[in-house]
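Task: encode each sequence below as structure tokens.

Item 1
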Amino acid sequence: MLTSRARFAITLSMALLAPARALAQPAPAPEPEAPADKPAQSPSEDGWKSPAKAADPPLLPAPSQGGPPTSTSGTDVASSEQPSVTPAIVVADEEHESRQDARLRALERRVQQDEQHIRKLEERVGLWKNLRLESFIQPQLLVQTYNSAASPNVQPNGELPTGIGANDTIAKIDGTTTNGTFFRVRRARMRTFYETDVMRLFLQIDVLPAGGVGPGIGTILRNAEATGIARWTRDVRTEVSAGLMFTPFRAELLEPSMTRPFIERTWFIQNVFPIERDFGVKARTIALDDRLVVDVAAVNGQRLGERYVVALPDLNRSKDLVAYATYRLGPVTLGASGYLGRGQIVDAQALRFKQYSRWATNVQASAGYKLLRDVGESRLSGELTFTRNMDSGVIYPFAVPTIPSNFTDDVANIDGRALYVRFEQDIKRHAVVGYRYDMYTPNSAIKNNARDTHAFLATWKISPNLRFMSELGWAIDNVHRFGAPAPSKHIVYFSNVLQAMF
């Protein structure tokens, strides 16, 4: 039995320990005013349900201090304090920015070094930096066959010599023969361009002479143009050229032989504009993102391929005027041109000189489009021309006007007409096939008085600098003098050209 003194000690100890025990127990949580959000599960807990969610990085920890949420859906942002960022992320961002700055400094040094290198090269090259050289040659195999009417063996009476066939080889009075099958170099040209922002020089020569007072006497000059360039706005410029140039009458005349798929130009060009060039001055204006091109020219009117052009570039004082315009509407290009001038007749025996007016008009259209995406571009073009007294007489001497019996009378006008339609189809990047129909009559007043030519083309692009062109043509020539019967000449030719260029 405990004594009263012991019971008093125990009671005092329990009284002293009760507050300490109460402090050691956690305080009961107050009743929430609204249900608390369900805590998010860790990726390990629900990753099997959503692999994408499991791959997401863990959320940033919430601020340690209390207060309203700063990014909870449905709650306005109420805290101006920025969320805490771990030191590792800050260090990574600083390292990334440092690497980017170092890369930019390296690129700037490289650009500066390249610019210095370019300036040194330009100083070393000097004026040669504006010079461009081009060249191409066309070795050719030409095979021609004729019917009796078209044979070069036909005598002046229109008959073949006894025992001689249409395609036999016989001697000619000028010391040559009537052979129509041979190798030759069709064209061998050097082209030089020197161009700056305000001028251009274009010089082209061919080792094969053209024009002159007799066979084999002529010039190797094909183009010699000096051009000044005026830039009115960023979109409009005018180029004024003078010298020996292409006559700007129609698209076919301006197409270089270096890029033209057909080996020869149409029969109309070969008769009216032999060698395609003339001496004169030309102004070309280009506008509307190069969609509009307008040419205006004044030329001698004595073409390069005519007989006396080297001895005397023009036989009369007046100059011929030419105007030519094209406009491109998407894949379609439309154009029109006109020619107005004066021709002349020279009677070397009676020493008479007679002039006459001449003119020509031309309309044209062309289009290019990829009808078959996996094959290549298809191109269709055509031109229609009406003329008066325009034939040069180099092939048909009777196609030019004659001096009338009464010298003071005007010459009898000769109206002509020409048409061609041309189709080309690219086969991938390595081949082109095409067809061209060409008709020309120097005198449309005579019935059945035209030459019709059908040309079939196949071109193999062996490399960017080498291509092989093969052309098969069939011509029916009925051009004849007034009052004479249509000759019905048939010529079949097979032309093969291996063109190398740079």
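Item 2
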Amino acid sequence: MPKRTVGLRGKFLLVFLATSAALGLVVANNMILTGRFLSAIGSTYAQNARLYDFLHALEAADYNYQAYLRSKSDVSLESYYRSANVLRQSLNLFNKEILDNPTALLERDITRLSESYLEATERAIAGRRARDIEAQREALSLSNKACAYIRRYVEELDQIWFEGNYNYYTETSEKIAFMRTLSAFLSLLVFSVNALFFIAFIRFTTKPLLLLSKNSDEVSRGNYDIPPLDIDTGDEISLLAKTFDKMLEGIRENMSQIEKNNHLEKYLQEARYSSLQAQVKPHFLFNCLNAAAQLAMFENADAACRFIERLADFYRGNLGITGEDAMLRGEIDLVLIYVDIMRVRFGDGFRFEKNIDPDLLDVKVPSLILQPIVENAFNHGIRDMESGGEISLSVRRENDVILICVKDNGKGFPPELLEMDFLDDRPYANGAVHIGILNVARRLALYYGRKGLFEIENGLAGAIVKIAIPNAISK
């Protein structure tokens, strides 16, 4: 398996854990020391409490003992025995061994004196019962002396304990104060270090993310010429940045390829458009020259002259079209010239009607889209009719398009033409038949980049051609 390196974020985390552990040790040490101090205070309190209980038992035994000697009351005697038992039990709390220690010696002396005191009180009580005044007096004197020594030794022991506990309390208090100061300082230090590392960690984490977000926003705006991300954190963010750079490089390559393809397609469309546009002029010129030859044969010089003049006007208009754009006004003028030419050829054997909205004459359209349609109506619609042939041209606005409609009352379109796909690049099976409308249909699709702008159908009598000019805007 590949070796996984620890990134900067991992190092930040390790430092944070180390400083937190150090602070935890200081706090734990402070808690242990405080616990020992509280335990020592509790032990001191327990010592003083035991000493107080012993002294209280001594005072109760001596009080009841003295009361019995004065009154010889059985109640006092019973109370004495109870107090004496408590006093004997309290003696178990003191040291009875011989140690080279002032405190231990005092405890041993208190124990022995207490035992002597209890023995003297027993002899005094026995002398009182036996009415032995001398024995009673002697025992009472011994018990009083023993009780006085016990009180003095208890006070000395209490003083020694107090001084020792006070010294321990002072030392421990100083240690605790020092540890508290040290804990506070270390806590502040650890907090400051952690805060600095946390801020550095946040900056370290958010800076590359902000840079990545900025570059992503630039890419979403279509700006692909941005420098690669210089992020080397050794973690997932670095991997994400490298992946983003590879993705951006792939996008640049794809965009370059798409741009090349678009240029090729554009050039191809322009070539196809020019080719289609050039097909119309030779086709019509051949027909017109053939008609001129027929007129010359019949020696109709005036008609032939007029015919050639209108033909010159027609081709002068065509040669004036240097680009693919034209105005609807010019397209209609070409249609009218063509109709005059046809009148010279066919006489008044047909009728031409036009219904044109004058507000639409200055709309930009593709060049040579009307004359081929009208020519098709003559050649394939009404040409073989002896009389009564009709062609109409209407231009009107319908919703958001300009609708151009050319109708004739001829024989209509053949079924195979109605079913064919005009945008299919394959040549029409019948050669030049209806090449004009095929040309117009394909040029409209190329010019506007969409389908459905060209329709043909058969009416009750004759053929109907509809052209929809989208998003028509007057010049």
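Check on item 2: Residues 7 and 234 are 5 Å apart (CA to CA). The chain has two domains: 8-207, 279-470.
End of task.
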